[in-house]
Known about the structure:
There is one protein chain. The chain has helices at 28-38, 58-67, 76-84, 88-98, 114-124, 145-158, 184-193, 206-216, 230-237; strands at residues 19-23, 44-47, 71-74, 102-105, 129-134, 162-165, 199-202, 222-226. By secondary structure, it is of the alpha/beta class. It has one domain (19-244): Alpha-Beta Barrel (TIM Barrel), CATH 3.20.20.70. The chain has an 8-stranded parallel sheet with strand order 3-2-1-8-7-6-5-4.
Amino acid sequence: MEFLDLPKRTSGTRTYGITSIVDFGVPLKELENILYDYGHIIDIAKLGIGSAYLTPNVDKKVSLYKKFDIKPYCGGTLFEKAYYQNRLPEYTEYLKSLGMDWIEISNGTIEIPLEERLNLVAQLKKDFHVIAEVGSKDVNKEMSTSDWVDEVWSLLEAGCCYVITEGRDSGTSGIYDKSGLIKSDLVDELLKEIDCNKIIFEAPLPKYQMYFINKIGANVNLGNVKLSDVLILEAQRCGLRCETFFMEQNECKLLL
């Protein structure tokens, strides 16, 4: 029975308001139990880092996610490993053999020039839905705000479905500084220049999730969410936590 006025959430096959979880190896049966209850509030599942390459029954895990209408893909580290070893054709065949039709292009660990990444998007979008990630995992590598905006814009223009802002699972790189503080000026500039519905902000901790919900609205796209935090995040989106308590029905800000 519903009796509260809550922020209106997108539903069904969402194009924004996305929750993208990171799977670091949850066992298959445990995952099935989690998805039975919470699959409807998960949209995308990243098999974190290069873990998919070592995951037992990875094909069954991919099929399980798809059964719940969740889009699975492999973390960018596996893409970068394949790129580094000149194995991209083998990698894409591997993804196809698993039934994956989403692929991430990133340069978090190795340097891949933007022009090269744009060429890869042009090639891979023929067979996959492409997600790109901007930002380095190295906390000592800094990008200017203008470079961030240029890269995100260019990757979207090249045909990416979404661009992820790097944050790691620790919240200590990319859009966060090494102490874990959000680079709010950078976020402000991205929101001013880019359609926020096309950005997935990596927000691995509830405090970051609350920041983006309060700043953008209940239907902000959030990534690197832990499976154990999925229900907490949905409660936050719906104004059912102290820090988002006063969100109203009309406060779902879409910065288009």
